[in-house]
Specification:
Layout: H1 2-15, H2 18-31, H3 36-48, H4 52-65, H5 76-85, H6 92-103, H7 111-131
Length: about 130
């Protein structure tokens, strides 16, 4: 059943039916709350819909339940950093945590992803200088 829900959600995305895809992935994680894929796709859809808080929550859940699948979800750190940096009030501590998680995959990222991570690092370092 889980696979069928994921497949249905992906078909909805391909058709451009974002709201239907969101409903499908919400159903998927309701039935299978520890399945990282459902959380991952839902996070991306929330990001598209500019629902930043929900996107961050779902990216965190995808990462948490990804267990040894992090190599498949290696894009999560830079994706969540993009969302966090676009928030009106940037959660500096959480940004710092995701910068740390991105380090493992940094060399695998494309140039534009590295630039965004480096930008996040500068924001954190400026914040630390203000405190000192």
């Amino acid at each position: 059943m889980h696979t069928k829900l994921i497949e249905k959600g992906l078909v909805d995305i391909k058709k451009g039916e974002i709201n239907s895809a969101i409903a499908t992935f919400k159903e998927s994680i309701k039935l299978f709350p520890k399945n990282a894929s459902g959380h991952f796709y839902l996070a991306n859809l929330y990001s598209i819909k500019d629902k930043k808080t929900q996107a961050v929550e779902e990216f965190n859940m995808a990462w948490k339940y990804g267990n040894n699948l992090q190599k498949y979800f290696r894009n999560i750190p830079h994706q969540i950093l993009f969302v966090l940096l676009s928030m009106d009030t940037q959660p500096k501590e959480e940004i710092g945590e995701w910068i740390e998680r991105a380090k493992e995959y940094y060399e695998e990222y494309a140039t534009e992803e590295k630039i965004m991570i480096d930008f996040a690092k500068r924001i954190i370092s400026k914040e630390k200088k203000k405190i000192d």
